[in-house]
Amino acid sequence: MRFPEGFLWGGATAANQCEGAWNVDGKGPSTADIATVGAIDKPRIYMNEIKDDVYYPNHEAVDFYHHYKEDIKLFAQMGYKCYRMSIAWARIFPTGEESEPNEAGLQFYDDVFDELLKYGIEPIVTMNHYETPLYLMDNYNGWSNRKVVDYFEKYTKVILDRYHKKVKYWMTFNEINSAILNPLFSLAMREASLQEVYQASHHQFVASAKAVKYAHDHYPDLQVGMMYGGIFSYPHTCKPEDVMACEKDMDRYLYFPNVMCRGYYDNKAKAFWKKNNINIKMEEHDEEILLAGKVDYIAFSYYMTMCSSAGIEVKMNLVGSSIDGAENPYLKKTDWDLTIDPMGLRYALNMLYDRYQLPMMIVENGLGAVDTVEADGIINDDYRIDYLSKHIKEMRTAINEDGIPLLAYTTWGCIDIIAAGTGEMKKRYGQIYVDRDDAGNGSMKRTPKKSFYWYKDVIASNGENL
Ligand code: BG6
């Protein structure tokens, strides 16, 4: 009951949630830099401008920018085989429009990759994780504008050319299907009609396919994946209406991997456009580009499952990190209202593999919880160990009993970072504690939690000791 030889164990973060240094060494502001702190009952505000007297948690985050050596050393101590991270586009092209990249930004990622490789840790890199240069949102209305495809193409060529010898595994857009739930996160648009969301998503499909094709043409050893935001639904009952509601809810989200894994819009996608009066404007070669830029693997996040029921609309909850549908009476929830469903992970792996027959990675999974530092400085996060252990067991069964080709598993927010939905620090996922609070106070000191030592043993035993 072990994992396959060479399985990539590790952790994951996103640049805007951990790096800080939001305006250091030439970085431009991004869409993540205008967000205030929220809470479970208080959504973050995305402001129109950056004000001096407002606290923006992502500006300093946990200052990975200046602590990366110390942090990577801790990753190495846990025995990481890989580390999933993202590149901040606005560090490379501060507004997105420049013709030349920012050398200091490029150098930073060179340094991070070198540090990882020094310990034999394989970087897995997301090109765009919920942040776009703010300038492109303010002046182009984000991805609604076709011109942004060109700016993204320029950016992805620069990073692929620069890092292809150091980074083998890439992903284009984080949780690309979240566009229909939160256009600001992924499309850099403040508000968007259905027509605008699907047009902007078309631009992202083309941009992603161009990056995949460029990588394949120039660097055939690279693997470029898509990243699905883990939405998996069960019918609330066996009533045919609920089963059909589930099918239709899932169609909306699977629309995204369908295009990126298969390389075309299928009949169901076209019927959806027709029913909703969506008219996708395509340029002459777009269909060829989509076909030529099919991804090599599917990565996905997994935190929860939901239930579909006829007549209940599935939507993102107030604080933006959970999906509300019908209640599932069989599952407990986290303090942030996400259902806890380890077996759902095995179901998700089976379902995605059946549809696409591609290798997979689980690049986000974990428990957001409040941690207490005991008097002796120890953090006993047994609840997190329990959560992770149960999920990893299901993964192991999926590999060994179902034959699922799983390449990697990375725990989300392996070092405590700023929560994306609420901007809180106290919603912690990490195996490494960071002394920082919701108001930005704290020493930034890093301390391994109990789950650090537990995960180290999981990795050392290749998944046997859970
Ligand atoms: C995923 C995102 O949706 O969920 C991450 O890719 C995010 O960026 C994670 O951090 C957890 O959500 P939250 O709101 O708890 O940070």
Automatic annotation (TrEMBL):
GO molecular function: 6-phospho-beta-glucosidase activity
Key word tRNA processing present: no
Key words of the record: Glycosidase, Hydrolase
Top EC group: hydrolase
PROSITE patterns: GLYCOSYL_HYDROL_F1_2 (PS00653)
InterPro entries reported in the protein's UniProt record: GH, GH_1_N_CS, Glyco_hydro_1
Pfam families named in the record: Glyco_hydro_1 (PF00232)
EC number(s) given by UniProt: 3.2.1.86
Family from the record: Belongs to the glycosyl hydrolase 1 family.
Protein name per UniProt: 6-phospho-beta-glucosidase
Higher taxonomy: Bacteria, Bacillati, Bacillota, Erysipelotrichia, Erysipelotrichales
